[in-house]
Amino acid sequence: MWFFEEISMIREVTYFAVILRILMAAILGGLMGLERGLKNRAAGLRTYMLVCVGSCLIMLTNQFIFQSYGQGDPVRMGAQVISGIGFLGAGTIIVTRRSQVKGLTTAAGLWSAAGVGLALGIGFYEGAITGAFAVLVVMTMMQYMDNKMRNKTKSFEIYVELKGSTTLGDLLRQIREMEIEIRDVQKQTGADIEGNVRAYSATLETKKRTPHQIILEKIVTIEGVIYAETL
User: Fold this and answer.
1) What's the pLDDT score for residue 219?
2) Residue 84 and residue 80: Cα distance in Å, rounded?
3) How far is it, in rounded angstroms, from Cα 54 to Cα 60?
4) CB crowding 61-92: b at 16 or more within 10 Å, else e
5) Are 220 and 228 a contacting pair, CB within 8 Å?
6) DSSP letters of 58-126?
7) Are 25 and 52 in contact (CB under 8 A)?
8) Is 94 left (phi over 0), alpha (psi -120 to 50) or beta?
9) Is the dihedral of CA 173, 175, 176, 181 positive or negative?
């Protein structure tokens, strides 16, 4: 019982509670950002720490105003953080010249870090710690399962570079001979490496669940194909 009594005491805005919450926000935010930083993402350790600490401080300020003056909405500033963090997350999402979308996981992680910071700021320690642990599990341990699932979908997108002497029709015909349907073929005008190289993206649909790497290895062997990868 004494543990729950101690927890209830530090839910109020005191000097000790302020230091504890901000310190925990820096630690939990750093742990979440460490995984992104090790993968050389734009938003890494420091960004996650700042988002989590900033969210915590905003929520602390909101609670302090409500506790000190007895007026105002204790969750209004927190709601603004949830909607406002989108601009930072959007800045991490990019579309490469090969039509690959990158940064979605980092953006979602930043949004989650803001949620952890808000939970700490209001004194919801249990939710903040559990939430941070869940985010870490999803970004680390679940990556293998996600990659394995994506690698065996019947429909997936590819990026292909062809020599100038090879026509798109030749490529499509040989891919269809592998019993693979082709959808939404688009020329990547901004992805031309040289004047004699053309790039395309397309959606492939297979009848059986075949690892994408096996299909790519077959496509690369087609005459005129310089490079191929999944998107």
Assistant:
1) 80
2) 6
3) 10
4) ebbebbeeeeeeeeeebbeebeeebeebbeeb
5) yes
6) HHHHHHHHHHHHS-S-TTHHHHHHHHHTHHHHHTT-EE-TTS-EE-HHHHHHHHHHHHHHHHHHTT-HH
7) yes
8) beta
9) negative
Measured from the Cβ of residue 187, the count of other Cβ atoms closer than 10 Å reads 12
Contact 32, 112 (CB under 8 A): yes
Predicted confidence (pLDDT) per residue in 47-100, tens digit: 888 888 888 888 888 888 887 777 767 777 777 787 777 777 666 666 666 556
| Domain at 155-230, CATH class | alpha beta
Residues found in the chain? 231
Identify the burial level of 224 via C-beta atoms within 10 angstroms of its C-beta, where 0-12 means exposed, 13-18 middle and 19 or more buried: middle
pLDDT-based confidence at residue 1 (cuts at 50, 70, 90)? very low
Q: Which amino acid is at 9?
A: M
For the whole prediction, is pTM greater than 0.85? no
Residue pair 171/159 in contact by the 8 Å Cβ criterion: no
CA distance linking residue 130 with residue 196, whole number of Å: 55
Please name the amino acid found at residue 169: G
Residues with Cβ within 8 Å of 29's Cβ and at least 6 positions away in sequence, in order, are 48, 49, 50, 51, 52, 53, 113, 116, 117
Amino acid sitting at position 79: A
Residue spans per domain, the chain: 2-150, 155-230
Quick check: 45 pLDDT over 50?
yes
Bridge partners (DSSP) listed for residue 204? 156, 182
Strand 225-230 versus strand 155-163 pairing type: antiparallel
